[in-house]
Amino acid sequence: MQYRFRAGGYSPGIFPKGVKWLLIVNAAVFGVDFFAQNWFEADLFWLFRLVPDHVLHHGMFWQLATYMFLHGNVWHILFNMLFLWMLGVDLERDWGTRRFLNYYFLCGIGAGVCVVLAALLRPEEMRSPTLGASGAVLGVLLAYGVVYADRIILFMLMFPMKAKYVAMIYGAIAFFGSWQPGSRVSHVAHLGGMVFGYLYLKMGLKRIRSHPLGWLRRQLQEWKRQRARRKFQVEMKKQHWDRDRWMN
Questions:
Q1: Nearest to 105, CA basis, from 45, 199, 204, 22
Q2: CATH of the domain at 170
Q3: Strand, coil or helix: what is 18?
Q4: 122 and 231 share one domain
Q5: CA distance 26 to 32
Q6: Spatial distance between the Cα atoms of 76 and 91, rounded to a whole number of angstroms
Q7: Is residue 154 in a domain?
Q8: How many domains does the chain contain in total?
Q9: Do both 155 and 232 map to the same domain?
Q10: pLDDT digits (tens, 9 = 90+) for 190-244
Q11: Region class of 209: left (phi > 0), else alpha (psi between -120 and 50), else beta
């Protein structure tokens, strides 16, 4: 039995500019970080890793996006960028650069949001840093499995398999792995990226579909307003209680 691999997914060919610049920026950041840590023992990007405590209690919301450009080692960035190249090229060619990048960042930021929310249930992970583009890349894999369901790709870079089954397997691994705290792999981020990708593709949410980053930004702003309102109410109740406590 012969398998046909579409050239757009695996040949170097023409790089769409979205995938090209994601590869360039990720590689550049990794190179600077690698040499800074190994040559000068300087951690230049520690404020850009995703730490739930920093996001929730110190307002470092930029970490929900910047953590995607940081990677722990050569293999980490190699596999992420390899999958981004193999799967993202066709999607960007068919969708266009703007929609592809919106989808990519929606999945990545959504994965970060899931990491922060999961830390609320696991306080021991509140100060644990998360980094890497895996959440966004697995969102791209989910889209590839939906759009090109019967196309053959390589599972684990070795086994030819239909794209929809590869997406299902990685989704199952992320789901069951997310129930195992203490793992060095952020399965919650992987699952979150795929869940946000699924919502974008399947749930018919027009606001997300047309302007996914704008929708996510509005949700974040609404959460900040609700949080500020709750803090104000608590403070008012506290002042009221203190005033009544001293009344005769």
A1: 22
A2: 1.20.1540.10
A3: helix
A4: no
A5: 10
A6: 22
A7: yes
A8: 2
A9: no
A10: 999 999 999 988 775 444 445 555 656 666 677 677 777 776 666 666 555 444 4
A11: alpha
